[in-house]
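Standup notes
- DV: blocked on the single-chain target, sequence here:
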Amino acid sequence: MNRSRWAAWLRLLAGLGILVALVWHLGSGAFLDGLRRIDAATLLAALAIGLLTTVFSAWRWCLVARGLGLRLPLGGAVADYYRALFLNAALPAASWAMCTAPYATAGTPVTSAGACGRWSWNAPRARSCCWSPGRWCCS
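- DV (later): unblocked, structure below
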């Protein structure tokens, strides 16, 4: 095993160790009580709300792409939006995922920070930063 693989296993074991220590110290009663209170209707409502917000956000990407002269089908935009949500949760600098996904679906490669910045203007009064190879792009 090389060094990076050892480091990955060490991080995983450290995270598991922290979870075990928390459950041992605090107990699992409150967590299990919370799980018992979730019924099917609540779970379905949460899933439906999550799906609707994702579809509407992907639809917004389609409208922005159309304004830029790109063709972006809704089905591909929804799939890319779910991918971007995962990457935003999993990666430390994941705003890059939100910038690249519409371009990937539209078949246009992201090659510059300027291209990345075109996707960050759709949130009024919000500062958006993206990572482009070699530098940050902030608008």
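- Follow-up: The first strand starts at residue 129 and ends at 132.
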